[in-house]
Write a structure and sequence with these properties.
With 248 residues, this protein is an alpha+beta fold. The protein is 25% helix and 25% strand. It contains seven helices and 13 strands. The strands form four sheets. Strands 4-5-6-7-11-8 form a six-stranded mixed beta sheet. Strand 5 and strand 6 form a beta hairpin. The longest helix is centred in the middle third of the chain and has 23 residues. It is globular.
């Protein structure tokens, strides 16, 4: 990952499933040139989200507003002052992947409810908003290869997908990757480690950058940094990289 960070030289990087204590994260990234905002999970070796920024954040909030998730390592957001005097809020989110009928899946819907509330507030209170992360939801049939095999399963439930519909249709946030990619299959960002899913590109598009309309309009290109072969990636997710023009 260090080599990828250095080569890409992104202004903002969001991470999910960091799975490391806060002191270790800061030690590993001490010489990266980034300001590091990170929140770990109370469950050791689980979850964890972070936002890395070239400019120093004005504020950091390691929570989503629901105290139930404060120690879960599933939400962090930062406020970044931009050159034109406006403010950009960037959030890194890691939603649950539990099967239907489990406590984890109940928690996923609770966090989805809080996601809607927080995104409503960001859109109303801040100049620009960008909510990113691993949502563990494929929004449409274009967002996963095996539609029939996953119907009725967590990650492709009608109720889950309806939340993303609401975020777009009612709140006005833009799925920037989809807008730039067009009406095509994928491009996928996650592949199961089982079988030959990676080789056959039997993937899911479950990693998103959701932006407020003004920021989305500044997006010029999107790419998924998919590894060249199944045995070379440093994660079962591939980084989603989007270029935005400077705001001025």
């Amino acid at each position: 990952m260090a080599a990828w960070l250095a080569e890409r030289d992104c202004d903002v990087v969001t991470l999910q499933e960091v799975r490391a204590p806060d002191d270790v994260v800061h030690e590993l990234l001490a010489d990266s040139g980034y300001h590091v905002a990170h929140t770990e999970s109370a469950q050791k070796g689980r979850n964890g989200v972070a936002v890395l920024t070239r400019i120093e954040p004005k504020d950091v909030r390691p929570h989503c507003g629901d105290a139930y998730f404060d120690a879960s390592g599933r939400w962090i957001e930062v406020d970044l002052p931009l050159a034109d005097g406006t403010l950009l809020t960037v959030a890194s989110v890691y939603l649950h992947s539990g099967a239907v009928g489990t406590t984890q899946h109940d928690d996923k819907f609770r966090l989805l409810g809080q996601l809607v509330e927080r995104m409503t507030s960001i859109a109303n209170d801040v100049d620009h908003g960008l909510v990113t992360g691993d949502f563990n939801i494929a929004h449409t049939e274009r967002d996963l290869r095996n539609v029939r095999g996953n119907a009725g399963k967590a990650g492709f439930l009608v109720e889950e997908r309806a939340v993303l519909d609401r975020i777009a249709d009612e709140l006005g946030w833009v799925d920037v990757h989809r807008r730039l990619s067009g009406d095509v299959d994928g491009p996928y960002t996650w592949w199961s480690m089982r079988g030959r899913a990676f080789d056959n590109d039997t993937g899911w598009r479950i990693d998103y950058q959701l932006a407020t309309p003004g920021l989305a309009a500044k997006a010029s290109s999107a790419s998924v940094d998919r590894a060249t072969s199944w045995d070379t990636p440093w994660s079962d997710h591939a980084p989603l990289v989007i270029d935005y023009a400077s705001i001025s």
